[in-house]
Structure formats: C-alpha cells, structure tokens
Amino acid sequence: MPSKPRQERPAARRSSTAVRRRARESAILAATRTLFDERGVAEAQIEDIARAVGINRAIVYRHFTGKEELFALALVGYLDELGTALAEAAESETKPRDRVAAIVSAFVDYGVEHPAFVDCAHSLMRRTGTELFDEISEGAMLRLGRAIASCLALLRRTLEAGVESGDFTVTDPVLLANTLYATGLGGLQLARVGLVIDEAAPGVPRVHRVGAEQVKSLLLTSALGMAQG
Asked: How far apart are CA 33 and CA 22, in angstroms?
C-alpha cells in the first residue's frame, strides 16, 4: 500500500508561519523606506506601500498597528545607519572636543543626505509619550528606544569623557545629549528649508538663504558652548 504523506508537525507549521510573517514584515518595511526616500514621508500612503509589496492594505494592518508604527520602524532603520556613522566619526578622534565636532558633523551630513529621516523623527517627536504608546506596539517602541539610545549613548559617553578630562562642564550628560539631538533635528529642518527670516524694518520681513554648512557650524558652536557651560 502506498504510504500516507507525513503531516507537518504543529511546531514546524508555527515555525514556517513565523518565517513567512517576518519576511513579509521585512518586505513592507523595505517598501516603506524606499517610498520615504523617493517621495518623502508625507507622500507615502499605506496603499502605495501595499501596492509596492503586492498585497492589499488590510494585510499591512495585520502586521503593523498603523502608519505611525511604520514611521517608527522606518526610523529605526535610519537610526541604525546613523549610529554606524556616528560611531565611525567618534572613533576618528581622541579628544572629547574633537569627538563632539566629528559627531555633530556626521549627524548633519546624514540628515542632509536622508531628509526622510528628519521627517520621520519630527513626525514622532510631535506626539506625546502617551500617544506613541497608544498607537505603536510595545515591541516596536522597544526597537525604537534601543535605536535612539544607541545613538545618544555615543554622545553621552563623549560628554562624560570631556567632564573627566576637564574640557566640559556638564551636570547631566543624558539630558544634554537628548537636547542636542532635538536641537540637531531642528537645525536639519532649517537647512532643508534653506531660508532664515529677519526683519528689515518694523513689520517688514526679510528672507536670507542659509546652507547646510552654516547650520552645521552653528550646531557645533552651540553643542560645544553648552558642553563647556
């Protein structure tokens, strides 16, 4: 008699399903990142992301809680790349002051090259912590927290080294690292707009051009000034 086909064991089926699920999640995130880089964050819609993967939007919502979670996980990818760039910049210098300069420079260079990173970061920063936890799954929040913390830790350790060497006067390196990150994002948005506003006379606005190098110089001066107290 012909032998009966062996049925797949439940554990094997679960493992296979998990692998397919992770592969689809990776494909959705890759499509999200591509659309962000090509069109910008505001123009990338769930329908576009689903179409790029070859699925319908309902399947996207089976894997992610919504667009905010896709923003968060796309930001994780940018932050992982940024962290590598910052680490390489920090390793290129030995003195704390020079390390801060290298980190700020690498941060601005990455942000100018990846404007969607700036958009993602700003979009999430506009929401309160309570809103983020309501809209994003715990697992995604953990991944986002790890990615941000990894970048900030490089700057925090540099500030602490500067305190030990006597180059810096910082009472709270963690707060300053977070402040510099937020300030840097604001500076990157300014560099992206490329304009600053002044007043030529009372009630008469005047517009000036501003470039990325000017913003980088200002952010560096600000970072060193705050670090030195």
From this structure: 16
